[in-house]
Amino acid sequence: MKVGVPTEIKADEYRVALTPSGVRELMDAGHEVYIQRGAGEGSAIADEDYEAQGAFVVPDADTVFDEATLIVKVKEPQEIEVGRLKAHHTLFTYLHLAPDPQLTRGLVDSGATCIAYETVEDRHGRLPLLAPMSEVAGKIATQAGAFMLEKPLGGRGILLGGVPGVAAANVMVIGGGVVGMNAAFIAIGMEADVFVYDRSLDRLRELDVIFGGRCSTCFASTLEIESRLSEADLVIGAVLVHGARAPHVISREQLELMKDGAVLVDVSIDQGGCFETSRPTTHAEPTFAVDGITHYCVTNMPGAVPITSTYALTNATMPYVVALATRGVHDAIAADPGLRSGLNVAAGQVTYEPVSEATGLSYVEPETALAEVAAA
Ligand SMILES: NC(=O)c1ccc[n+]([C@@H]2O[C@H](COP(=O)([O-])OP(=O)(O)OC[C@H]3O[C@@H](n4cnc5c(N)ncnc54)[C@H](O)[C@@H]3O)[C@@H](O)[C@H]2O)c1
Q: For 327, which of 2, 66, 256, 373 is 20 to 30 Å away at the CA?
């Protein structure tokens, strides 16, 4: 198969979807790889490094889409990229469609087969292609939050870990999955007082063992969250209901309970945001204030540390890219039920139920849609 990798064009996105190791794996399996010139630059990977493994470096994104059948990306396609997608393409990337009916409609209209990294599951029902970026985003969340608490940046002016004789800051992490656990690890390392909230008692039990008493674990009822807001300096939102729009865990009215200059970091913003007052921001302008509370809502947080993120992401995606290129979508999905969960759009229809429910677009079974692709 011909595999294509365009340069990422989302604002401040420096990751790339394939490293030279990935090119090597694909070449060894008998495929051709087309990389847009400069695609790896942001991650310190030169065109020559790709060429040394046998990739064709091509001048622009149009050539990548013209030559390749399997398009591998990092972030959801921007409008101009949606326009390049044709029915014969398979797109493998993060999509986050539930909060984005316009993008969903664009992909449906393209007729392309679209597999979302964030809904691919492993055999335990976990999210192997979301996890590495959640590890990165969780760690950044605490770093960014600590920075935004500084007075010159509009924060309360409190040091996360305090100093001898002065109390540490209070950090709430809502959602104790991969993001939440990593955010809490860094907050604990910075010596803050940390409280992790989740609705899954099993997950809270796991965290209790993992953290060995170095933070408190709390059930995420509305009242429990509300009653701690007045003490919180930094709140990190990290909830996820697989594939669906994020539930709101802090309402606009509840902001009144918080201290002036406190910071909210909404990592769940890529699924629509888990604070009612959140809206997507970029690395160039990461924050805004509502009622005196700083909101940090960057949708591609790992994009800021591409030298870590590109390798963390591609270590996880590469086996799937090789499987899709070697077996084709239909057989690869038949062989791996977890990859079936990744199929969001095919043959002009939505094939993932939470996206259908969130966007109002009708749902068809993945097998039905793939049979239509095969017949076309
Ligand atoms: N902004 C970014 O750059 C970026 C990067 C990576 C991940 N993310 C996003 O971060 C979010 C979290 O990802 P993850 O990998 O940690 O997911 P995860 O599935 O590992 O964890 C989510 C946790 O949220 C809990 N949860 C669900 N509903 C809840 C509620 N109402 N209250 C409290 N807890 C609740 C679940 O029990 C689970 O433990 C996702 O939306 C993901 O897309 C964003």
A: 66
